[in-house]
Amino acid sequence: MHPLADAFGRRFPYLRLSIIPACNFRCTYCLPNGYKADPKAAGPLRLDEITRLLTGFQHLGMHKLRITGGEPSLRRDLTDIIATAAAVPGVERIAMTTNGVLLTRRLNEWMDAGLGAINVSMDSLDRACFARITGHDRLDSILQGIDLALARGLPSVKINAVLMRDVNDQQLPAWLDYLRDHAVGVRFIELMQTGDNLDFFRRHHVRAASVMAHLLDSGWRERPRRADAGPARELVHPDYAGHIGIIAPYAKDFCAGCNRLRVTATGDLRLCLFGDFGIPLRHLLQDDADQEALVRAIGGQIGRKEKGHFLHQGHTGITPHLASTGG
């Protein structure tokens, strides 16, 4: 095993793999007009290609995998993908980010296949607000799916909520009520500019630091960061069963602790969510005999990773919307 490290000393044990670009929601900050397939685009990676990809990354020290989309539950073979990932030696944890629509129907089979964590994208606990953001009145079903995950003892259950001014930024009291007796992590994510959402970003961007300051003033305390922690600053409170994470990509030194790489649904390696280029890997996923070449290709590109993103300069790279790269 040859763990990946970049020129800034950061290591990358965490892979975020998109398995499908399509999404069945129309979130205002991501795909307000719904997903439109590109008829010229290649199809998503097949199961055998995914197997070779994960094996290659495992040789480079990857031990945490997050399956993303689009919406990954739209893949009919999602259970097989989870089982395949679980069978790769060295993969210690398989997580998935989902809109949660199919949790009540399919969570049991996903867990049986090896799923150990979920992040549910759910930007509001208010049914009408949720429907306005996503284009779907499915909040009640998604909440039932989260309850099922807790009842089944899924090791990690988190909720992702994108903060938006004049949309959901006044709903912190409702979230706190929910966290009193729900042992989940709610992660408030600062709205990020992408290639397609500049006008929306300008209207609705609010700094996550304001939420952090309010929580600290209310008795919440920051949890010490683990060595392999992701970008969230986590807070806990003795009166609450759940905890809170703050993801503030515009904060100083946000990228200093980066520990993840991304691969798109069609097999392009992305060194940064907001990078300027993708590195095609699919041609090295067609035969087991190409495994060494795959490992060399990934390892040879890590030196091109920048120290940080350029969002402060309004540069969003080649990411048109978050569904395109898995967020």
Structure description:
The model has no long low-confidence stretch (mean pLDDT 92). The chain is 28% helix and 17% strand. It is of the alpha/beta class and 327 residues long. Helix 1 crosses helix 9 (291-301). The longest helix is centred in the first third of the chain and has 13 residues, at 47-59. The chain contains nine helices and twelve strands. The radius of gyration is 19 Å and the shape is globular. Strands 7-8-9-6-5-4-3-2-1-10-11-12 form a twelve-stranded mixed β-sheet, with helices on one face. The chain has one domain (14-324): TIM Barrel, CATH 3.20.20.70. It has helices spanning 47-59, 78-86, 103-113, 127-134, 139-151, 172-180, 198-204, 209-217, 291-301; strands at 14-18, 64-68, 93-98, 117-121, 156-163, 185-190, 221-222, 233-236, 243-247, 260-263, 268-270, 279-280.
Number of domains as seen in the coordinates: 1
In one word, what is the shape? globular
Order of helices and strands: EHEHEHEHHEHEHHEEEEEEH
The CATH superfamily is Aldolase class I
Give the strand order, joined by hyphens, for the main sheet. 7-8-9-6-5-4-3-2-1-10-11-12
Number of strand elements? 12
How much of the sequence is in beta strands?
A: 15-25%
CATH architecture: Alpha-Beta Barrel
Helix proportion: 25-40%
The DSSP helix count reads: 9
Q: In this structure, how is the largest beta sheet organized?
A: 12 strands, mixed
Distance between the termini: 28 Å
SS class: alpha/beta
Overall mean confidence score, pLDDT = 92
Low-confidence stretches: none
- CATH class call: Alpha Beta
Provide the gyration radius in Å: 19 Å
The CATH topology assignment is: TIM Barrel
